[in-house]
Amino acid sequence: MRLTFSTRRAVVLLAFSVVAIDLWPQVFEQDGIKYRYDAESRSVTVVNVYGKGDIVVPRSVLYNEQELPISGMQPECFMNNKDIRTVRLYDNIKEIPPYAFCGCSLLSIELPEGLETIKKYAFMSTHNLNEVKLPQSLEVIEEGAFYGSGISSILLPDSIQTIEGQAFASSNIVEFSFHCKDHTLNNNVFRFCKQLRSMIIEEGTTIVHQNFGGCSSLENLYIPASVEQLSYFAQDGPNKGGNYLTSVKVDPRNKRYDSRDNCNAIIETETNTLLFACPTTVLPKEIRSIASYAFSSERQTEIPPIPNSVEYVHERALNCLDEIPNLVFEDGDKDLNLAYHFNRNHDDGSFSSIKTLYLGRNTTWLGNGKDYDENMMKVGTLILGKEVSRLICQVNLQTDKVYAQSTNPSALDIDFKNADAVFFLAPLYVPIGTKEKYRQCEGWNKFLNIVEYDATTISSAKTDAHKTNIYNINGHRITGIQKGINIIRDTDGKARKFIRK
Q1: How many beta carbons lie within 10 A of that of residue 79, not counting itself?
Q2: Which one of 3.80.10, 2.60.40, 3.80.20, 3.90.930 gives the CATH number of domain 322-466?
């Protein structure tokens, strides 16, 4: 087929136009925005924004008499811009790239319908950004997307599929209602949100990972019936931002967890494992084990008596206090196993301690095979119940003194990893008139220094821990009745209200 002159001319001009466009500089700037041209797609992306004040990222730009569509934004394109106030984006933008607005002075942004993803740390440290309206098209909020931002209010659209860890961590969010289509509240989404006062986990959520460390204004939490998996609420403990919860309750319809007898705790129903306790928790008699970080509230001032149904206490289960004043494991016939550090130790090598420890039954204190210092446990006074016949310590126990209560001692199977430090240095106190019996009794006679005491005058941890406790309406323990509403918990664990006008 022969081409006419006009047809050949058109082909030549088109070819020249394509070559000319392909020869354009890859990067050009307009109105304070730097763009990068992509010859293959015949489109441009936003590379960097130098403009000030109110910025509009258009759908397209005119360059060399050609209209080029804007196909997206590159990472860090607004990063650390301290001169912008507002930004408007159009529906050609499908994702906000990583670190796009990190550290900038943004006051507000108009996110378009059609936006599908906010990438990791996109709005990190946007301290002036108070509120963001998320479009109904948004599906994914990636890790740390609003980390350290100033947002105090945000509403999730029904389209949300996934919210990744630390998405709103260290932000100024005051209240939040959580839902997403993957049904998972991921790790530390709200960590260190110090203004967060109200947190609603909506029905349909099935997995809740640890999320509330450092949320110092959040006191109450409700676990819906749909939740099937819970993780620690504050894995690192208070020294690294523990939770501040004073009240927690599980929906009675939940098949995996419960808060039986209004105990103000979370219990895994099938295994009878205590997963989380609050300052006013009264432990049910049926629980068999205490999970790691179960006691991790910053508001905790003491540990309630541990019932004799408990057979195992996991590592750092009592992670809430630098010093536990009085800790009681009630009398019983079930053997007790303690993990090597059931309370916390510190990164600087120092150790938490127990002022007075009462063991009312046979106990094995498990070690972890590490060196002496890492296995160290400090106990001021160790009191052994009358029925204790075995005490095995695979940890290096540092104690000032040991008290025995029986007036007619039986043989004691006792073994300490650091036996010399205990048997030679820690005195054994026994009831008046029984010193010789203990000297002749197997196990007890390992103590080098046996001293008699008046059993009627000693104030044991067991006695102290069973005193009536008084709390204010916020769940904080108080030293006496105050004006207003007082919550009084008696020795049997029952609570009653008392109002002083």
Answers
A1: 19
A2: 3.80.10
